[in-house]
Amino acid sequence: xxEEQSTVAAGRAVVETAASRGLQVRLLGGVAIWLxxxxxxxxxxxRPYADLDLIAHRKESRKLRDLLSASGFVPDDTFNALHGxxxxxxxxxxxxxxxxxxxxxxxxxxxxxxxxRMELEPLTMTAADLLLTKLQVGQLTEKDAVDTAMLVWxxxxxxxxxxxxxxxxVVADACAAEWGLFTTASDNLESLLRLLPRQNMPDEARxxxxxxxxxxxxxxELAPKxxxxxxxxxxxxxxxxxxxxxEVRR
Length: 250
Known about the structure:
Order of helices and strands: HEHHEHEHEEEEHHEEHHHH
Radius of gyration: 18 Å
Shape: globular
Largest sheet: 5 strands, mixed
Number of domains: 1
């Protein structure tokens, strides 16, 4: 599945149209990972993408709402009235897909403030940020495992943000700042390795993903942890360490 499907094309168009109006919008989720992936990873691990996930600046949300409405997208007025300070929901005119827009902060099982990282790359969030949004889910699904494998397959691990590089210190530092995120991400990386043999990919690619996941886990373990992290670690799993958000569906 290498041809750009309609939802991917729609996501690209939203970001590019917003940019032409001076608005900063970036793609998240499976569509963002597909756009960053190499051709071989797309061919083996590409899947249908039903919806779009975006992040934008809260200060630009009114202009973004106007732009999406003018482009033919339909707002979910009830959802936006309740959550519009942090999140927006729109639908394609034919209801073929929905657009879930986070404003500055990505909040699901864990929270990330992407205000200062949103403009590092022109179309999607960086590979490190996308990895964090996948690893933060309370329980890794098969779909999440496929997306994460595609992302890791397509990016070498390094110490900078670049088109084909996953910035390892960004991931390690985020997990070193919060024991809960460290624990969720560690659990999900373990699940990814367990699910990896089931993925439709060449053996050499599977081994490459395994090697890179090992490097990610090592960096997370070695990153210096503060007193707050260590105190929470003593409590451990006796108390909840992540939220269980309800997925927004049309």
